[in-house]
Specification:
This protein is mainly β. It has helices spanning 8-13, 18-28; strands spanning 39-43, 48-54, 63-68, 71-76, 96-101, 106-114, 117-124. It folds into 2 domains: 1-32, no CATH class; 34-130, Immunoglobulin-like. The chain has a 4-stranded antiparallel sheet with strand order 1-2-7-6, with no helix packed on it. Strands 3-4-5 form a 3-stranded antiparallel sheet, with no helix packed on it. A hairpin with a 4-residue loop joins strand 1 and strand 2.
C-alpha cells in the first residue's frame, strides 16, 4: 500500500508555494531514517529554536556547521587515532552528515559544544516589509474640477 500524495492540484491553485510542495515530496521519498547522532529540536521562544546533538568524542575541530540558503548542514569527521587495538568499541566516532530544512528568514545565531552536546541556536527574523502594518484610514483628497480654458471665438 502506497501513501503517496499527489500535490498537482495544489500546484495549479497556488502561487509561491513550490518550495513547500517540493519539501513535502522529498519527505515522502525518504527511505532510511538516519538515527545517529541523536538530536533534539527545542522551541525556546516565539521565534527562537535550538538544535541539540549528542556528539560525544568529537572536538570543535571535528565538526563543521554550514547554512546554505534554507538548509543547515552539520558534519562530523573524526580523525582516526591509533591508541591501540580496540577489544570493544562502544563510543561511536563515525563520520556523519545531518541536514535540517529551515524556514525562510531563519538564521543560525551561534553554536557551542559543551560536555559532548552540540547546541545550535536559531532565530527567525521576519523582515520589516513582511511584518503586519497598520493602515490609517483617512479622508480622500478633494478632487478639483477639471477646467478647460478656451479662447472665445468672435463671430
Amino acid at each position: 500500500m502506497r501513501n503517496d500524495f499527489d500535490f498537482a492540484p495544489l500546484y495549479r491553485s497556488s502561487i509561491g508555494f513550490d518550495r513547500v510542495f517540493n519539501l513535502l515530496n522529498s519527505a515522502q521519498r525518504l527511505q532510511a531514517v538516519e538515527t545517529w547522532p541523536p538530536y533534539d529540536i527545542i522551541k525556546t521562544g516565539e521565534d527562537d529554536y535550538r538544535i541539540q546533538m549528542a556528539v560525544a568524542g568529537f572536538a570543535d575541530a571535528d565538526l563543521d556547521i554550514t547554512q546554505e540558503r534554507n538548509v543547515l548542514i552539520v558534519k562530523g569527521q573524526k580523525a582516526e587515532q591509533k591508541d591501540g587495538e580496540y577489544l570493544h568499541r562502544g563510543i561511536a566516532g563515525r563520520a556523519f552528515e545531518r541536514r535540517f530544512e529551515l524556514a525562510d528568514h531563519v538564521r543560525v545565531e551561534n553554536a557551542a559544544l559543551t560536555n559532548g552536546l552540540l547546541s545550535i541556536d536559531l532565530k527567525r527574523e521576519i523582515p520589516d516589509a513582511m511584518k503586519p502594518r497598520k493602515i490609517e484610514i483617512g479622508s480622500q483628497p478633494q478632487a478639483t474640477p477639471l477646467q478647460i480654458d478656451a479662447e472665445k471665438q468672435v463671430a
